[in-house]
Design goal:
single chain, 2 helices, mainly alpha
Length: 57
């Protein structure tokens, strides 16, 4: 299951991009959303890394 974790930021970014386009906003106006997606994805990656390290796998 962890091998598909790279899909989280990809899917979130595509959904955010589609949302921006449907509402007529530019990429520059939606940049903050992409930053939030990146921070959220890094947090998930760090959490899973720590959990894997703690369980000794």
């Amino acid at each position: 299951m962890t091998r598909f974790l790279f899909l989280i930021p990809l899917i979130l970014s595509v959904v955010w991009f589609v949302y921006l386009r449907l509402n007529g906003w530019s990429m520059r106006q939606g940049l903050k959303g992409f930053i939030y997606i990146a921070v959220f994805s890094v947090f998930i990656a760090v959490a899973y890394t720590v959990l894997l390290w703690l369980t000794g796998r």
